[in-house]
Design goal:
395 residues; alpha+beta; Cytochrome p450; six-stranded mixed sheet; three-stranded antiparallel sheet; 12% strand; binds protoporphyrin IX containing FE
Length: 395
């Protein structure tokens, strides 16, 4: 037990952000959950919550555990000075005001309009991969829709579009606590900030998602400053998150041929399989919150002024909530999983992410008999869990 500001909490002494832990965090998450509903992460001097019910409660408590002071685990990323307001780092009415216009482009209804187009494109692409021998699945399959289609729908100028993957990887990596060897990522963050602060509203492709935000500003629904901040939605979390999620899903289907057979035999399980993919291998590891006032919920106490990391991916493997949580089961249908967050900050792009994953599975089911995978190379991005490379064979 450890005494933090007169509060007794169990201490987690491991390192969740070493390369080995980043590649395989799940045994550490189990230790964290078993230690207690809240633990003190000694290595990074923050509190941590990893049990399903407690993560959900914490995410519901945005009045006390705020995002406005940043959601990262180091002072550089959490310092918002001079940067446009960002949806993910605002709370209350300001947050709602910035989030609302996104749903015109990527809400559940408008996103459906893209279903047939995305399905045709991914089907034609998968056709070229079938019987082609081993290929690297992250770049050749998981990246296909985000890079070739989604980045066009966002509508940023071509030279910016080319930077999106690099900027996103750096941004997520910078959310973690390790600050050594991050010069490249910090330089990338500066590029993003400069872009957001200066991008001319008239350079957006007409009718694109980015254009929708500037049009909302013209109608007075947002200030131009807020529209620039909301644009970060498309520049930073729209590509890498879904690429990682799709690569994890392809790997899980290849590594569990019984589950692939079950899914292929019953395509009505597609939606369930998408939820299970995100539950089992949650892409976003965890974000932090700042305790604006004392946070007391049941046995959990986080004193005012402390930072607490909320681990979505640990919650999704909580044996207190899911039976046999380490198993990947396409018919589990965990619609309540926390991989997209919960509460006010529930992922704004989850309808798009689900659509991309659903059409990929539909196409695979229709066109592919077997998915074979080799042992993947796991990545060490501090913000995102998933595969750097995965050799795949489709027949
Ligand atoms: C499988 C893919 C994805 C996963 C696992 C994921 C995960 C998450 C999580 C866990 C949060 C909660 C953040 C918090 O609690 O502070 C979040 C928020 C957010 N995500 Fe996603 N995301 C995905 C795809 C996307 C896409 C495709 C977009 C954009 C097109 C997007 C845009 C956002 C935005 C703007 C927020 C902030 C929402 C808010 O603060 O109200 N995400 N996402």
């Amino acid at each position: 037990m450890h005494d933090v500001l007169s509060t007794e909490v169990p201490v987690f002494t491991g390192d969740l952000f070493s390369d080995a832990s980043l590649k395989d965090p799940f045994p550490h998450y189990r230790t964290l959950r078993d230690l207690g509903p809240v633990v003190y992460l000694e290595k990074i001097e923050m509190f941590g919550i990893g049990r399903y019910d407690d993560v959900k409660k914490a995410l519901r408590s945005s009045d006390r555990l705020v995002s406005t002071e940043g959601i990262g685990m180091n002072p550089v990323i959490n310092n918002r000075e001079g940067r446009p307001p960002n949806i993910i780092t605002t709370d209350g009415p300001e947050h709602a005001k910035m989030k609302r216009p996104l749903f015109k482009s990527i809400g559940p209804k408008p996103i459906e309009a893209y279903r047939d187009q995305l399905k045709d494109l991914i089907s034609a692409h998968i056709e070229t991969l079938i019987g082609a021998g081993w290929f690297e699945g992250v770049t050749s399959l998981a990246q296909f829709l985000p890079v070739s289609v989604i980045s066009h729908l966002v509508g940023l100028p071509e030279d910016v579009r080319k930077n999106m993957l690099r900027w996103a990887a750096s941004n997520f990596n910078l959310l973690g606590p390790n600050m050594s060897n991050l010069e490249v990522d910090i330089a990338a963050l500066q590029e993003v900030n400069e872009f957001l602060a200066n991008v001319p509203a008239d350079d957006m492709k007409e009718g694109s998602w980015a254009d929708d935000l500037f049009q909302a500003a013209k109608r007075g629904e947002l200030s131009i400053f807020e529209a620039r901040g909301a644009l970060a939605t498309y520049v930073l979390p729209s590509l890498d998150t879904t690429i990682f999620a799709k690569a994890n899903l392809i790997y899980n289907l290849g590594a569990n041929p019984d589950q692939w057979k079950k899914l292929k035999a019953d395509p009505s399980l597609i939606s369930s399989a998408v939820y299970e993919g995100v539950r089992h291998s949650a892409t976003v590891r965890g974000f932090s919150r700042y305790a604006k006032s004392d946070y007391q919920e049941g046995d959990i106490f986080v004193p005012q002024g402390e930072r607490v990391v909320i681990f979505y991916s640990a919650a999704n493997r909580d044996e207190r909530h899911y039976e046999d949580p380490d198993a990947f089961l396409v018919d589990r249908n965990p619609r309540d999983n926390l991989g997209w967050g919960y509460g006010d900050h529930l992922c704004a792009g989850m309808y798009l992410a689900r659509l991309e994953m659903e059409v990929m599975l539909e196409a695979l089911i229709e066109q592919v008999e077997t998915i074979e995978v080799e042992s993947p190379v796991y990545g060490t991005n501090q913000g995102l869990y998933g595969l750097d490379t995965l050799n795949v064979q489709l027949n």
